[in-house]
Write a structure and sequence with these properties.
Elements (H helix, E strand, L loop, with lengths): L1 H20 L2 H8 L2 E6 L7 E2 L5 E2 L1 H14 L5 E6 L4 H6 L5 E2 L7 H5 L3 E3 L4 E3 L1 E6 L13 E6 L3 H12 L4 E6 L2 H9 L5 E5 H9 L7 E3 L7 E3 L2 E3 L3 H19 L7 H7 L3 H6 L6 H5 L5 H9 L2 H8 L29
Parallel strand pairs: 1-4, 1-5, 9-10, 9-11
Antiparallel strand pairs: 2-3, 6-14, 7-13, 8-11, 8-12
Helix pairs in contact: 3-9, 3-13, 9-13
């Protein structure tokens, strides 16, 4: 009952915000700054350094949109949001869009009045335990204490998984990944569960990552992606097609290193349209011809961003897997630029 009340309240807020949010592009231009809702701190995805400079896979999306709209990838204000505050931040207009390890679900799309513009990371929920617990499968977690962020899809999946396997557990509620890491390392819970990518990012920050294992079971689908409010289709299109531009750029071999040359030398018609060398795609979004060129140049194409922030050569060490291009056996696929 409590959750229904909260969702209902957010629905009203979301409707009001959606009506007020039409014209986000004009608001961002007038402000001269994009306001991006991100994680409070998840290394590899969105985290500030000691000087307060944000970086990561999701942060790169913020920079790409700022480059496309404002011509400057640095014109971003990052607003840290928890699993409890993220939807209100978006619905109320506190942020222009949200890119924070957020799963695309039916109720979020409809009841919370969010528009997910794509899937920037295909994920699934997993479990992390200390090696000395002596567990090699999630099905050996009968009676375990488990740290779980409240207000998340993972909280609901956890309950479903244990019920389906006729097992019991004791949830240890946490609000942020930092709190989860602290509680897990302090021994407050036997296991920590969240998206597998989040577990890998969390483990990479440990002093002894070799003493912690991620169990083999993936118990859910977690399509993570950027989202905007209902009611402003132009802004939704801008965020959506900026993401698609990064994906298409990788498919067509457009990189941060060769983009300047390709813009004037390519004979590929779709790359010409993507980079603004011909056609009027930018004008259809309310932007100039080189919006996508700037977005790609800001941090590279999708593959470059993945490799630099969370890929196999980083401490997080994630393989492309489902996040490879469709031409490489993955699911990343941009609609045509025409």
């Amino acid at each position: 009952m409590k959750k229904s009340v909260i969702l209902g309240a957010l629905t009203v807020t979301g409707l009001a915000a959606g009506m007020a949010a039409a014209g986000t592009l004009d608001d961002v231009k007038a402000r001269g700054e994009l306001i991006c809702g991100v994680n409070t701190g998840l290394v590899g995805f969105a985290a500030p350094d000691a000087s307060g400079n944000w970086s990561g896979f999701d942060v790169a999306m913020c920079k790409a949109v700022a480059a496309a709209v404002l011509g400057d990838a640095s014109k971003v204000k990052y607003v840290p949001t928890t699993s409890q505050t993220r939807f209100t931040a978006l619905a109320s207009g506190e942020v222009d869009f949200l890119v924070r390890n957020t799963t695309w679900t039916f109720s979020r799309d409809t009841d919370l009045k969010m528009d997910f513009v794509g899937v920037n990371y295909y994920d699934g929920q997993g479990f992390m335990v200390r090696k000395d617990l002596g567990v090699s499968s999630a099905k050996e977690l009968e009676g375990a204490t488990i740290c779980i962020q409240t207000g998340t899809t993972t909280e609901l999946n956890l309950a479903d998984y244990f019920k389906a396997n006729n097992m019991t557990y004791t949830p240890i509620a946490i609000e942020t990944n930092a709190e989860g890491e602290q509680q897990y390392l302090a021994g407050a819970c036997d296991a920590y569960t969240t998206d597998a990518s989040g577990l890998a990012a969390t483990r990479a920050a440990f002093a002894d990552p070799e003493n912690h294992i991620i169990l083999p079971e993936i118990i859910s689908k977690e399509p993570l992606g950027p989202s905007v409010r209902h009611g402003d289709n132009q802004w939704g299109d801008i965020v959506m097609w900026t993401f698609n531009a990064l994906v298409a750029a990788e498919e067509y071999g457009v990189t941060s290193a060769n983009i300047a040359d390709l813009a004037s030398t390519t004979s590929n018609p779709e790359v010409k349209r993507l980079l603004g060398a011909e056609g009027d795609l930018g004008a259809m979004l309310g932007l100039d011809a080189e919006w996508a060129k700037r977005a790609i140049a800001a941090g590279g194409n999708y593959g470059e961003i993945f490799a630099a922030t969370i890929g196999e050569a980083t401490p997080i060490g994630l393989a492309r897997g489902l996040n490879a291009q469709w031409t490489q056996g993955g699911l990343q696929y941009s609609p045509p630029f025409r």
